[in-house]
Amino acid sequence: MTIAKAVVEFIGTFFLIFTVGMTVKTPDxxxxxxxxxxxxxxxxxxxxxxxxxxxxxxxxxLGVTLRGKCTWGDAIAYWIAQFAAAAAAAGAVLFIKGTxxxxxxxxAAGTTYNVAAWFLGEFLFTFALVYVVLNAxxxxxxxxxxxxxxxxxxxxxxxxFAIGPVSGGAFNPAVGLGAFLMGLAxxxxxxxxxxxxxxxxxxxxxxxxxxxxGGDRP
Length: 218
What we know:
The chain is mostly helical. The chain has one domain (2-211): Glycerol uptake facilitator protein (Up-down Bundle), CATH 1.20.1080. The chain is 73% helix and 0% strand. α1 crosses α7 and α8 (173-181) runs antiparallel to α9. Mean pLDDT is 83; it is low at 106-111. It comes from Aquisphaera giovannonii. The chain crosses the membrane at residues 7-24, 30-48, 76-96, 116-134, 146-170, 190-211. Its main location: membrane. GO terms for molecular function: channel activity.
C-alpha cells in the first residue's frame, strides 16, 4: 500500500510542477499561471487525497508526519516520489519547451513538426484528465461527492494553460476530430490526438485498476 500511495504522490507532484514549468515558460499563459498552478493542485488533491492524503509537497508531508497522521515509512516513500516527480517534470518541460514548437494550426508549406512534443503533452494531460475522472467520480473513496465536475473541468483548464500552446490541448479524440474537420488542425495533429489521447486514457485506467486491486474499485 505504501508503494501505491507513493505512486499517487508522484503523479500529483509531477502534474503540479509540470504545470508550473509549462505556464511560467509560456508567454501567453504566464499572466494566469497562478490560476493554472492552483488549479493543478486542486484537481490532484481531488484525485489523490482520499488515497495518499494528496500532499504533493515534502514540507506538507513533514508536517503531517510530525502531526502523527503519516508514518515515517510512508513519509520517506512520499519524499522519494515527490522529488523524483520534480525531476521528471523538469525533464518533460525542458524537452517540450526546448523544441520551439509553433502554435498548432493548419500546416504551411515547409512546416517542421516536433511530433514527440505534441504527443507527450497530449498524452500527459489526457492521462491526468482520465485519472481525475476515475478517482473523483468513480472511486468508492470519493463516492457521493458533489464536486467532481469542478475537479474534472479544472483539469482541462490546467492542461489548456500548460500544454495548449504546444499541442492545441485536445485531450479528447472527439475534440481532435472536430478540430480537424473545422480546419483547425492538420492530419498530423489528428493522428497525434487519436493515438496520444487514447493511450493516455488507457494508461490512466490501467493504473487506477492496479492501485485499487482488491480494494476500491467496483
